[in-house]
Amino acid sequence: MRLFLFRRLLLAILVCLTVLVISFTLTRLSGDLAASIAGPNATASDIAIITRNYGLDRPLPVQFFDWAGHAATGDLGRSFLYHSPVRELIGARLPVTLTLGLTGLAIALAVSLPLGILAAAREGTAIDRAIMLVALVGQAMPSFWLGLVMIIGLGLDLQWFPISGVDTWQGYIMPGIVLAFSAIPALMRLTRSGMIEALAADYIRTARAKGLSRTKIVFKHALRNAAMPVVSIAAVQLGFILGGSVVIEAVFALPGIGYLAWESITKNDFPVVQAVVLFLAVIYIALTLLADMMNALLDPRLRG
Amino acid sequence: MTNSAADPVLSVADLRVTFGERTEAVRGMSLSVARGETHCIVGESGCGKSVTSLAVMNLLPRGAARSAGHIRFHGRDLMGLSEREMARLRGDKIAMIFQEPMTSLNPAYTIGSQMAEVFERHRRAGRRAAMDRAAELLARVGVTAPGMRLGQYPHQLSGGLRQRVMIAMALMCDPELLIADEPTTALDVTVQAQILRLLQKLQQELGLALLLITHDLGVVARMAQRVSVMYAGQVVESGPAAAVFAAPTHPYTRGLLACIPVPGTVRRDEPLGSIPGMVPRIAPGFIGCGFRDRCGSAMPECAGAVPLRDAGGGHTHLCRLLPDATRAPGA
Ligand SMILES: Nc1ncnc2c1ncn2[C@@H]1O[C@H](COP(=O)(O)OP(=O)(O)O)[C@@H](O)[C@H]1O
Ligand code: SF4
Ligand SMILES: [Mg+2]
Fold first, then answer.
1. Fewest Cβ atoms closer than 10 Å to its Cβ: which of A35, A131, B308, B312?
2. Is residue A136 over pLDDT 90?
3. pLDDT for position B331
4. How many contacts does A have with B, using Cβ atoms within 8 A?
5. What fold characterizes domain B8-93+175-326?
6. If you measure from the C-alpha of residue B18 to the centroid of ligand 1, how many angstroms do you get, rounded to a whole number?
7. What values do phi and psi take at A296, rounded to 5?
C-alpha cells in the first residue's frame, strides 16, 4: 500500500511538471506578451522596458525555471490585469468553484447512483430501458444550452432561482444541476454495469443461499464491489466538472476560478493563465490520488 | 441400510426445469435424502446436476422455470413457498456450498463478517455472539487460529481454506440438509481428500442429510450411501451405492464405471476411457432414451417411451433392458 501510494505520488509530480512545461510554452507561443501587456497605444520603447522588467528577454528555459522555482514556493506571480498576487486572486475565487463542483458532484451522485442501481436490479425491463434512455438524452445535451434553457425557464419565467451570482446558496443550484448533467450519464452507466456484474457474481449466489434479504444482497454485497469503478470515475468526473466550470461560471456569472480563467485567457493575463492551469492539474491529480485511496479502503485486495 | 423413503429430510418428485422453449435441463428428477444419509448425484458435466440443486434451493437463474410433483422438506412442500419463506429456510435449515471456493466468498468483506451475518439473520443474534459461533465452527472444520482468520479477507486464504470456510459458514445455523455442489472439484487432489473426509466426519457427527453432487465416481465410492446417476436431466439409475457399484444396471453407469479404475468393479472386457459423444441438449417434449446416441445397446424401440425397471432393494434404472440382461457377461 505504501509503495503503491509512493508510486502514485511520483507519477503525480511527473504529470505536474509536464503540465507546467506545456502551459508555460503555450502562453509564450501566443504572441508577443510584452506588446499585449503594454496595450495598443504603447511605443516601441515602452515595450522594450516591459520586456526587460518582466524578464521576457531572457532565454525561455531560464524564464521557465525562474517561474517554476517561484511556483514551487507558492509564489505564482502578479496579475497584469488586477495588479495583485495571483495566489490571492485564486484564493478568493476557490470557495465558489469548489462549492459549485461539489454541489454538481453531489447532485450527480444523488441521481445516478439510485437510478443505476435500480436499472441493474431491473435489468432488461422497461424501467431499465427508460433509465438508459434518460442517460442517452442527458449525454446528448450541451451544458451551455441546458444552462441557458434553465436560466430562461426556472430563472426568468418561474423565478425560482437567481439567474446569476452567488449572493445566496440558491445561486449554486442551477449551475450545479447543469454541471451534474454532464457527469450523470457516465456515472449512471457505470453504476448500472458494475451492479449487473456484481449481481451475477458467485458470491451473490452464496449470499442468496444464506437466505439474506434482497436489501442486504444489493446494498451490502453487490454495491460495495460495484462502487470501486464508480469512485474512480466520480473523481475524474469532478475534475471534468471543475474544468467545465469555465463555461458554466461564465454563463451564470459566478466569480470562481473558471471565470478567472476565462477572463485571463481573453485578456492574455499570462501569469494567471499559467497558475490556473497548474492549479487545475494539481486538483485533478489530488482527486485521482483520493480515488485510489478510497478504492484501497473499499477493496482489501488493493491493500495487499 | 437406511431406508430413505421412511422419513426423508428431502424428497423431490418429478422435478422439471426448462430454459425457454429449447432446453429442458432437468426432466422429471425424483430423489430423497434421509437424516444421516449421503446421497450422491453423479453424472458428466452438463447433465443437470447444478440446475437440480439450484431448483431445490429455488435459486435458479433468471430464464429458468421449474415445476415439480413436490419438493418436500420434512414433509413441507417448498414449491408453494414465497421467496420470503424460502429465504428463511436457506442458510438456516437448508444450507448449500458451491464448486468455486475462489469466487463464492465476497472479496470485500472479512471471513468473520460473512460468517456472522448468517447467524445474525436467522438467529437474531448480535455480532459478538455470531463471531463466537463463527470461531467455534472454524475450529470445528479444522481451521487453525480461527480468531485470526475471522479478520482475514478471502484473498488471503488458500482454496482449501476457503472451502473449509464455506463449509463452516453453511453449518452456522445447524442445518438439517446440506447440499454440496462439487465441493472439491476445484481443489487439488490432496486437499480434495481432506475436504471429503471433513464432510464425512461432520455428516456423521451432526446427522446431516447430505446431498453431494459430483462428476467423480471415486467420490461417490468414498462417500455415498445412495447414488443417483444422472444423464441429460434424468436419473437413469438409482440405488444403494454398494448395489450400484457391485452391479450397475444402466449402460450409462457401466460406461462411467469403465472410465475409472475402482478396484473390483471395473469390467475388464470394456475399454477404459470416457464414453464417446456428448451430453445432448434436450428440448421439452422429448420422448425416448436420451442416451441412445451413445449407447452400445441401442435398439429402434429406444426411441419410444423408456420404462423404469426395478432390480430390487431400491435399485432402479431407466432402460428398456431388464436388470438381468444388462448384468449378463459381455452384454
Ligand atoms: N443459465 C442457463 N441458461 C440456459 N441453459 C442453462 C443455464 N444453466 C444451465 N443450463 C442448461 O442446463 C444444462 C445442465 O447444466 P448444469 O446443471 O449446470 O450441469 P452440471 O451437471 O454440469 O452441473 C446445461 O447443459 C445447459 O444446457
Ligand atoms: S434405453 Fe436403449 S438406448 Fe437407452 S440405455 Fe437402454 S438400451 Fe441404451
Ligand atoms: Mg455443475
1. B312
2. no
3. 37
4. 73
5. Rossmann fold (3.40.50)
6. 10
7. -65, -35
pLDDT tens, residue by residue, A260-294: 888 888 887 888 888 888 888 888 888 888 888 88
Would the CB atoms of B106 and A225 count as touching at under 8 Å?
yes
Distance CA B110, CA B249 (A): 48
Distance CA B29, CA B15 (A): 5
Q: Where are the domains of chain A?
A: 2-58, 89-303
Is the minimum CB–CB distance between B103 and chain A shorter than 8 Å? yes
Q: CB of B231 closer than 6 A to ligand 2?
A: no
Model confidence over A164-202: pLDDT tens digits? 777 777 778 888 888 888 888 889 999 999 999 999 999
- pLDDT score at B235: 96
Nearest CA in chain B to A217: B106
How many Cβ atoms sit within 10 Å of the Cβ of residue B72?
18
Per-residue CA distances from A92 to A88, A257, B95 (Å): 6, 9, 62
Q: How far apart are CA B293 and CA A198, in angstroms?
A: 40
B318 lines ligand 2 (CB under 6 A): no
* C-alpha count within 13 angstroms, C-beta hemisphere, residue A42: 17
Tell me the CATH number for domain A89-303.
1.10.3720.10
Q: pLDDT tens digits for A201-248?
A: 999 999 999 999 999 999 999 999 998 888 888 888 888 888 777 788
Structural domain boundaries of chain B?
A: 8-93+175-326, 101-174
Q: For residue B48, give the ligand 1 atom closest to its CA.
A: 17
* Amino acid letter for position B107: P
Q: What integer pLDDT is reported at residue A292 of this predicted model?
A: 82
Which residue shows C-alpha cell 441429460?
Answer: B232
Contact criterion met (CB < 8 Å) for B106 and A221:
yes
Verdict on whether the full-model pTM lies above 0.90: no
Q: Give CA separation, B216 vs A48, B193, B224, B262, in Å.
A: 91, 12, 12, 11
- Do the Cβ atoms of B290 and B43 come closer than 8 Å? no
Evaluate whether B209 touches B178 at the Cβ level (below 8 Å).
Answer: yes
Cα of A91 vs centre of ligand 2, distance in Å, is 86
User: Are A209 and B122 an interchain contact pair (Cβ–Cβ within 8 Å)?
Assistant: no
